[in-house]
Every structure is written in C-alpha cells, then in structure tokens.
Amino acid sequence: MLGKVRAVPYAQKISVAIERCGINSDFSQITIDKASSLLTDRPIGRAHSTRRVEMPRIGEYARYLIATAMLCNGVVGLYLGGAWVWLGLAGFVSLALLDFTAGPDHSLRGGAGTWFYNGVLYLQLPLMVTLWVLFALHIRAGDLGWFNMIGALIAVAFLSALGGLPSAHELMHRKHPLEIACCSLYLTVFGLPMNDLNHVHGHHPFVGTADDSDTPVRGQSVYRFVWDSVVDGTIKAYRFEKARLAKRDHSVLWWRSRVVWALLSVSAWVGFFLWLAGPLGLPWLVAAWAVCFLILGGFNYTQHYGIVRQPGTPLLPHHSWNHLNTFSRAVSFEISTHSEHHLDPDKHYQLLRPYTQAPQMPSIVACFLASFIPPLWERVIARPRLENWDRHYASPAEQRLAMEANARAGWPQWLQTAPGA
What we know:
Strand content: under 5%
Shape: globular
Number of helices: 17
Distance between the termini: 42 Å
C-alpha cells in the first residue's frame, strides 16, 4: 500500500490547493488523514498500483536499452553509407508503429539493479558523438548525394534527440559532479549547453503559468513554441546564472561561470566538428541543430500544451499530460510518466509511478508527429482533451484562466460561464 510517509506530503498539497483554489467545496473540511485515504483509495491523481511489481529482469534491462539500440542502428547505417543512412530513421518509424499498437503500460519499475538504471544513462553519449563524427566525415567526403545527406541529417538529429534528451533530462536532476558534467556534454552536442538551468529553476517551479517558457499556450503552433522556448529559455538560463554569481560577488565572466564554460564547450564542439567536416560542415551543423531544437521542443510541447495553473498554487498531478504507452515510457526514461516527475523532480526515473487518473495523452510519438500538423494536433488531439481537462480537472480559478486562454486562441468556450463570475 502507498504508505503514510509518501501519502501525507501529497495530502498536504491537496489540502493547501483546496484552501487556495476552491477545487471542490465538498472537500472544504477535508483533513490530512482523509486526503491520505483519497490518495490510496480514490482514483483522482493516484498512482496506478499500490505495490511495486518486479518485472522480469531480462525484460527490464531490455526496455531501457531500446534507446541505445536505436543509436547503434543509426551508427551502423552511417558507417555503411549510401542508402543505409536511412536505417536509423527506419528504426524510429518502426518504434513509432510499435508504440501505436502496444497500448498503455501501467506497471511499476524497479526489477533491475540500481547500477543498471544509473549506468544506462551514460551509454548514449559515446554513440551520439560517433553519429556526429560519421556525419562530419560524410560531409567532407561528399559521398552521399543530396538525398542521402538529408537522410543522414534527419537520422543524426532524431537519434541524438531521442537517444540523448531523456538521459540528459534525468541527469540534470541529479547532484553528483559526474552526472552534472555528463548532462552538460549531452546538452553541448545539442547546442543548448545551459538548458538545464532554465529547466530546473524556471520550468519546474512555474510550470503551467505565463512565467514558464516551456508551457505552450492554447493556439500556439509547435513551430512558434520551439522558437520562443529556445530564445526565452536561453535568456532565462543566463539570468539565473548571473543572479547566482552575483550572490557570490562574481560576474558572468568569472572562470567558473556556466556562461563561460558553455561558450567554451560549444566552441570546442563546433571546432571539432568543422575540423572533421571542413568549412561545408557549418551549414549542415546549423541545420542539424535546428532539427534537434524542433524535436526537443516538439516533445516538450506535447507534455504541457494548454494546461494552466494559478500562479502561487501547489503543483498537482493534473498539471501535466501523461503518455503511458509501453515504448513511450521506455525510450523516454519515464519522462512521459510526467505527473509524479513534477511532484518529485529528484526521484529517479525507475521509481516514478504512472498516475492513471491524471490527464492522459496517447502515445508520445504519435503526439509528437501530430504536433507538426497544427490542424490535426489541435482539433483531433488537443482540444477534446483540454475540454475534458477544463471540465473535470481544473479548479475554479484554473477554469477562469482556461476561458481566457480559449478567448485569446479564438477557440470555442465550452465552459459557458466562469466559476464565480
């Protein structure tokens, strides 16, 4: 059973939310004990299971090696050259089809050793670098032709993002210097070496509010969101680091400044890539980074799209979308088990529990692909689920914010009158 040790903190959050937001007048007298019972015995916002299920060890190892296998597939394709460069993208398409058909997975993790869950986070980095090295060598050799070069670019960008983003995301919430350094290396390859600062200090505290650059607003296309989030996120990361250093009487030019090290690391990476690829490598590098930004932004876009939160109110399970399909969870290192990640950002990925009664989205891969076709994303996937969110999850204060967001987006008002209006 979900013990009191875990239940009470969440119950306290629920009680505070009730007092601040008026989530439901029927709960106005609820106590901490009753809230604990709500978490363990009632469906809303709870995890799927009350006990940890020991998965078969081979299956548990295999599921978290899928990203590594995808990168290996891409490395083999670029090594062979020619039409084989499309092998990595073909692997992604195969994974997407599997995720569409496999259905949801609500089981808990934890059947393998801690050494494995930690160690697998580092496997993708050398494979990512190998991908980029092979890409650079093909640019210098000019042996692929335009069509296959486009395939190589897409494969490198997709596999770097899908293979590296989940590991980088997990490591940016860790504290050990090795974990922090490895996260920085991942992000440097993407061209976003300070992204972790805005994610940890900006996104998590302000998710669902206008102060979060990683929460897309209703009616915002993924293309506009990616541009806004990259620019605003970089500016905020700089400001966070500047404020941190100012408290220690240092400038951003101090030798231990993250800004200085970000510039040095990106310069070294670009220099290394151009040394391998030659001058023609620069436009290809920029193009690959642009595709990486689209991919990273696209996955962020699907996890918080349109959700609103009253500033200053507690974060609750309904403030994130969850994508609980089998391969979505495995490849993302449980990023898609998003509700509890936001409730407890420092909890290691294999310990996160799927909240089946929190807001749900389909396969994260399906949502990602649909997001790049705005009418399909908005009308088929987003609007119906946001209407359900507004009616059944949002507090009265959030319902008012949702109506304002719908008005700005030019959407129908499915809530005819705001509560308290």
